[in-house]
Amino acid sequence: MQLWAVVACGVLCIVLFWQVWWICIAMWAASGFLAAFGIKKWAGNICLELSGIELQLQTGKLFRSLRRQPIWNLTSVQILQTPLLCRTKSCFLLLYSTHSVWVVPAVDLEQAEKLALLPGNGGNAP
Amino acid sequence: MKVVSRFHFFYSLQYIRYAFLLSVVPLIRALLEFDLAALWVALVQDGFIFIAVMCFSVLQWAASGYRYSGKRILIQEGLLFRRQLAISRPMVAALELRQPLYCRLFGACQVKIYYKYRKKPVFIWLWYREATTMAQQLLPLKRQETVFRAVGAERLSFSVLSANLVTTGVLVVVSAKRTTELFGEELNKLALSNLERVEKLIEQVLPVGLAWFAALIFVLASVAFFISFLHTAGFFVCRNNGVIVAKGGLLTKTERRILAKAVTSCDIRTTPMGRLLRRSSVYLHAGGFSGKDLPLMVYRKGKEAQLQKLMPEFHITPLQKASFRGRSLLQFIWLSGSVLLLLLSMTAVSAWLIPELSSLLSIPCMLVFISLLVSLEGFFVEDVRRGENRTLELCYTQFLTRHRVYVFTSQMAFQFSHNPLLDVRKRCNFHLRVPCGLRFRVRCVPIELKHSLSLIF
Lengths: 126, 457
Known about the structure:
The complex is a heterodimer of chains A (126) and B (457). By secondary structure, chain A is of the alpha+beta class. Helices cover 39% and strands 32% of the residues of chain A. In chain A, the strands form two sheets. Chain A has a three-stranded antiparallel β-sheet with strand order 1-2-3, with no helix packed on it. In chain A, strands 4-5-6 form a three-stranded antiparallel β-sheet. Chain B has helices spanning 13-33, 36-63, 101-106, 128-138, 151-183, 186-193, 195-204, 206-232, 272-277, 304-310, 329-353, 355-381, 420-424, 449-452, and strands spanning 65-69, 72-77, 83-88, 92-99, 108-115, 122-127, 146-149, 236-240, 243-248, 253-259, 263-270, 280-286, 297-299, 383-386, 392-398, 401-407, 413-417, 427-434, 438-446. At the A-B interface, strand 3 of A face strand 17 of B. Strand 3 of chain A pairs antiparallel with strand 17 of chain B.
């Protein structure tokens, strides 16, 4: 019921104020709720793995993409939690590196904490 | 922070230009309306604005400056909102000292400091002697041994310039002749009496308007090439103490110091004009530095030793054919092909309805046709592979240019993107990112590369 209320509010906002930021907020809220309420079908397409010295992020289903980067590229890791995400022990993970930011939604909190402890040494590659 | 050395007084110019923008609008309005009273009011108002901004910029200049603290340079800017920056040697990837003619008259120098991991450089105005001291502090040099002198580059620029001037001259003559044939001497009177009418006239008589437009484009291109010629005069490149130095210019003197260890990639660009002259321009990327307006040097086949003197790990390989089995030709030529078809259909229609326009349409047609040929070449040569000397080699085409990129850094990220059409062919697109957001794209690479292409050397 709660989910439907939020979706309805989002649609109303888009209809009333046809602006890009409203769409972004609505999408962000929707993705958070999808992750929080355990709808794993969507989140299941996103896969973050640590393979040796490499971080691999796979996203999408029809339009898939695989991103790879060595761990020494990482400059900082940010774990973002909302009350709803806390309930499912998941979080948003932001991986900052020397060239870009990876935003990974619905990551298992335990895995995120492990990644946060990685020796990201800000570009001191061997 | 106690300021020890102040910036050059040109530093305050950045605020005066805002005053100029503020004051020019009421002046133009008054001038267009031919209202002398309003013009006088606007001038008085501008005077006040200028005095206020001058006072502010002098105070701002007095509060800003820099000082050396150990191996760091501390920069302070701002009066009300203060900003402090600490720059140390390990953070710096490249440095640029630039002296346009007006700066040389006043002994000023524009200094740009490029970081290794930040895109936006730091920009300050200094006295020339102080600028060289700062450069020596951040990227010191010991002795200079010239590796390359821009004889080829000057010739290249000059030949392109001459070709362009001739084309411009011809186009201007043709446009003027056509205009005179159509309107005789009436046009001059019209131009003097009312500009708006001339605009409408140009809109109504499209071919003549377009002819002038094309002439204007070529004039601008010629000016650009002339400036490039002045910039490359007396240009030389050398390497010492681990720093690559590029120096030269006639009216605008430029000195670039690039830390060789910070070089992330080297881009060899081959343009259609370069193909005719059998030369390619070499660009180095180091952190936030990319040297977009001026190539580092001009490369000619067989002169690899020059590049290797600058970057010993550099090893240029002959252009190889990629495995193009399973590649989609359409993916490479769809854009230039569809634009060419559109232009050809427009030419056909114009040949029927407005024959004067057909000759002008041939210019974009020719450009897009060259782009189509370059895209076709991309179908055969676009590839990514591990090269010798611990590099990653990329070859790709973009519009009229073929790029050959050699990546030296190990701080990179790969992205392989799929779509259903590529999946059928067992191919994917490859994107490479290096620090400071620099991105390269190679289309239709084999899907096996997804896991086999190693990130480390």
